[in-house]
Structures are given as structure tokens and as C-alpha cells.
TrEMBL record:
Any Pfam family: Rieske
PANTHER family per UniProt: RIESKE 2FE-2S IRON-SULFUR PROTEIN YHFW-RELATED, SARCOSINE DEHYDROGENASE-RELATED
Name assigned to this protein: Glycine/D-amino acid oxidase-like deaminating enzyme/nitrite reductase/ring-hydroxylating ferredoxin subunit
Keyword Iron-sulfur attached: yes
Keywords (A to Z) from UniProt: 2Fe-2S, Iron, Iron-sulfur, Metal-binding
Domain Rieske: 426-507
């Protein structure tokens, strides 16, 4: 389970961790949001440190499809359905600034990109209305989109009954960009601490983070962790965690130039990777990257089966050869469909955060970095782009409340089912086969038993965040929480999500 982009990554050397050291800003997370914010601030003369549990681009930032696009499936029409045109335009303006930031950074740092046309297309008659709605919403928001003609539809590598197109978008190897940003950050005087897990964020008496290696102090803290690792503001209940999968293949036929995303279900994402914009160097043959299999975290019978369905579709649709990589990633969607960016409530203005990119982080993340950096530099409101104010002061409409209520009702039902299911399976249980896991009940408490690399492990199957009963992910061999999307290794170590600690090991 390694992304295509992570096959050959040169990571810059980090700085020695000095417990108790003070900085102007400490950023938690070395994905695109964290790295872009850090580079903006360190180039402004600030003393900045990044602290990351794993490595650079460990999660969504290094495991996406590498599409830098302002045409984002049916995002704009979905947003426009319940919100004013001014908010949709502000969202587009924010992503446009993010697009320009990331392409300038790539050019400056010598990271290759290729120019592509992005398509949101209908696979069948049921998707035509969605394509038309997206075209209208995009035009209203100021994007120079067009409806694809018959010849263009017929020439596409996938079946397209209609499509809205946006020219001059970009494709990139995201890990090449992330490592270049990290290298530039370190070269500018920033301190990079990888492999250092943050356990707690404190606001008073002075801002600090507590890590497994000791504390760091700062004037300001930025949480660039996908889901915020603090419950201030209750954002875990305002976003939904979604997982999706990708597979790459050697491409044996014609190399399509566009980037494709279906408007109807099942969602399919398609792009190619060539020597000009991909990993592996000029020796590698063109690759086809296919994405899809999206679902709420921890709420599917088999992650592996969903990925195999994606593989079968790709082989039936394209002239592909050997499968080269398969991977999965997680992102968060806000209930009102617009990312949350800014000051964390109840933090005295000392903590900033960003979440809710809905799988479009390659433009939303640098936009979030621009806003956070502007605030931390103390720039006046009138000096900032209008979109920062519009998005920051958006109103919650009845449809937002309805989506949030529906999602939280689902969470309540899932929580009840999890406990009931565990109660029906008392220990002892049969030893799981290699790569499998099961949840059972031991002394009235759910436990998770799995077998990986020939070793059977048992951990508490109760999420330490809010007590959800975990589900086994048979694709990535992890324990996933179906409530608020925290994830853990078979040994119980925290991977991601709002949980701040790991699972209790039983054996």
C-alpha cells in the first residue's frame, strides 16, 4: 500500500528536537497546508517549527491523484444549491489563489507540472443534469468553463455522454512538490521535526504542544492535521471523514492528455502520469492512475472488495498492463461544503487550523495557508483578498444544519450497532487468518484481534476519542473508527483523526 508518488522520495534532514524550545509559530503536520504555511511565515522572518508524527506527505497530501484543478467534480453546483452566488465565487477565488500559489511554487522550486484540460463528465444519461448544473454554477462563479462538443466526447478515454471542461489546469507529482517545499523551508531557517507525535495542544498559560519527546512553546500554533487534534470548536462533529482508493497501471495504449472525474456514481477519477509530471524518471513507461471507491471511514463491509472493483473497472475500460501501485487516502468534508479555516474557538486566538477540503487539497490547502499566514503576520482586513472575509463570515443555512443533523444521526446509529455487534461475539474467538481482524467482547468491552505478519495482536477496540467501536480495514490492515474517522495500526498506534492517543494493547 504505497502511493506511486512515494516510490523514490528524498527527504530533507530534520533538526534535532530540543524540548522546551520557543518559536514564533509551531505547525503540527507536514502535509501541504503545514508546509505552505511554514514557508510563507519563515520567509516573512518568523521563527517556525514543523512537528510531524510520520514523514512528509504522510497522509492525504502525498496520496492524492495529483490534480491541480478549479473544476472539482460537482463541488460548485452542490455548494450553489443551498448558498448564495457570492459564497461560491469566494470559494472559487480562494482556490484560484491556491492554484496560482502552488504553480508558482512548483516553477520556483523546479517541480515539473503538465498543463491539462480537466473534465467533469457524465458516464450515462443520469449524470447529464449534474454536468449542466456544474457548468452553470462554474460560469456564474467566474470560471471559463465550456461544454465539450461531440468530437471531444467521443475522443475521451472513458464513456462520456456529456462533459464540462476547463482548460489550462495542471497535473503534478505531489510528493515531488512536498519534498521541495520542505527543503526550501529548511533552507530558509525553519526547523523540521519528523517522527514526533503530538499528544496535546495547550493554550494557557502560554501556547505549547506536548510531544512524546517533550514540549515546544510558541506564540501561535497551527494545526495542519486534517482533522484538528483538539476538540475545541467540536469540528470532529462538523466534518465527515471519507476514504477513497487509487490504483496505478502501466499504460499500454494511447496516453490521454486530460484529467477526468465522473459526475455520477460510481465516482471514477482518471489521469495519466508521464515522465514530464510523474514519479520514476524518464525510464518509466506512462502510468494510468484510477481513483474511486469513496465511502465514509469504517462504514463498508470490505475496503479490499471496493478496491478490487475499481481494478476490474480499469482493466475493462483501458489498455493497461501490470498494476504498479495501490493506495488509499482520507479527507474531510464539512457539512456546509466549505473548508473551515482560521482561529480555533476557545483558543484566545492562539491556535489556527484548517480542515474540510473534500479531496481538493491541492488548491484548498495553499489557500488556507495564505489566509493563516496573513492573519499571523497581522495584515489588516482591507489588505486581504475579499474571499478571506466572505468565507470566514459565511452563514450557516438550514440545509447545512440538516446535513449535520443527518450525519450525526447516522453516527448515533453506527455507535449502537458497533456495541451490539461486539456483544454478539464473546471471546475467545478463532485466531484470525493472515491480514484479517475481528471485534469481539471480553469482560463487557470490545476488543480487536488481528493477525499481521504471522503475529496475532489484541487491542482495545474502543476509540479513545468518543468511544466508538472500531472496524477492521482489510485493505490497509488498520482499525478505523466509523464515528469520526480516527484510525490506528494493528498494534494500536494512532495514525490520524481527532483521537489524540492510541489504543490500549492487550497482548
Amino acid at each position: 500500500m504505497t502511493a506511486l508518488w512515494k516510490s523514490d522520495v528524498a527527504v530533507p534532514a530534520g533538526a534535532p528536537f530540543e524540548p522546551g524550545r520557543r518559536h514564533d509559530v509551531v505547525i503540527v503536520g507536514a502535509g501541504l497546508t503545514g508546509l505552505a504555511t511554514a514557508l510563507e511565515l519563515v520567509r516573512s522572518g518568523m521563527d517556525v517549527a514543523i512537528v510531524e508524527r510520520g514523514g512528509i506527505g504522510e497522509l492525504a497530501s502525498g496520496s492524492n491523484t495529483g490534480k491541480i484543478s478549479l473544476l472539482q467534480g460537482t463541488t460548485l453546483s452542490s455548494l450553489r444549491r443551498h448558498h448564495p452566488a457570492s459564497l461560491v465565487r469566494a470559494y472559487v477565488d480562494a482556490n484560484r489563489d491556491g492554484f496560482e500559489w502552488i504553480t508558482r511554487a512548483a516553477d520556483e522550486l523546479g517541480v515539473s507540472t503538465t498543463t491539462r484540460t480537466a473534465y467533469t463528465h457524465a458516464q450515462g444519461a443520469e449524470g447529464v443534469a449534474a454536468v449542466t448544473d456544474e457548468y452553470r454554477a462554474a460560469r456564474e462563479a467566474g470560471l471559463d468553463v465550456r461544454l465539450a462538443g461531440a468530437d471531444e466526447l467521443a475522443a475521451g478515454p472513458v464513456r462520456m455522454t456529456s462533459a464540462v471542461a476547463l482548460d489550462e489546469q495542471r497535473a503534478i507529482d505531489p510528493m515531488s512538490l512536498l519534498t521541495a517545499l520542505a527543503t526550501a523551508f529548511v533552507a530558509a531557517g525553519g526547523r523540521l521535526h519528523l517522527g514526533t507525535a503530538v499528544r496535546r495542544v495547550r493554550v494557557v498559560p502560554r501556547p505549547r504542544i506536548d510531544t512524546e519527546a517533550g514540549p515546544l512553546f510558541a506564540e501561535k500554533i497551527v494545526l495542519a492535521t486534517g482533522a484538528p487534534i483538539t476538540d475545541r470548536g467540536l469540528y470532529f462533529a462538523k466534518v465527515s471523514g471519507m476514504r477513497s482508493a487509487c490504483v496505478s497501471f502501466d499504460l499500454e495504449g494511447e496516453v490521454p492528455e486530460g484529467m477526468y472525474l465522473s459526475a455520477d456514481s460510481p465516482t471514477r477519477s482518471v489521469r495519466t502520469v508521464t515522465a514530464a509530471d510523474g514519479a520514476g524518471g524518464p525510464e518509466r513507461s506512462p502510468q494510468l492512475v484510477v481513483g474511486g471507491a469513496g465511502h465514509p471511514v469504517g462504514r463498508t463491509d470490505s475496503e479490499l472488495a471496493k478496491l478490487e472493483e475499481l481494478v476490474a473497472w480499469a482493466r475493462d475500460t483501458f489498455p493497461v498492463g501490470a498494476e504498479t501501485h495501490r493506495w488509499s487516502a482520507q479527507d474531510y468534508t464539512s457539512h456546509n461544503l466549505v473548508p473551515f479555516i482560521g482561529a480555533m474557538p476557545r483558543s484566545l486566538g492562539r491556535v489556527r487550523f484548517a480542515t474540510g477540503y473534500a479531496k481538493w487539497g491541492l488548491t484548498n490547502a495553499p489557500a488556507a495557508a495564505l489566509r493563516i499566514a496573513s492573519e499571523l503576520r497581522g495584515e489588516r482586513m482591507r489588505e486581504r483578498p475579499t474571499w478571506m472575509t466572505v468565507i470566514g463570515t459565511r452563514l450557516t443555512v438550514p440545509a447545512d444544519l440538516a446535513r449535520g443533523a443527518a450525519e450525526n444521526a447516522k453516527i448515533g446509529a453506527v455507535a449502537a450497532r458497533g456495541w451490539a455487534s461486539a456483544a454478539r461475539r464473546p471471546t475467545p474467538v478463532a485466531q484470525p487468518a493472515e491480514g484479517e481482524g475481528t471485534v469481539a467482547q471480553h469482560h463487557a468491552r470490545p476488543v480487536g484481534v488481528s493477525t499481521i505478519d504471522g503475529q496475532t495482536r489484541a487491542v482495545s477496540a474502543i476509540c479513545p476519542h468518543l468511544g466508538g467501536v472500531l472496524e477492521w480495514n482489510d485493505l490497509e490492515c488498520t482499525w478505523d473508527c466509523p464515528l469520526h474517522a480516527s484510525r490506528f495500526t494493528p498494534d494500536g498506534e494512532r495514525i490520524e483523526g481527532p483521537a489524540s492517543t492510541g489504543l490500549r494493547r492487550l497482548r
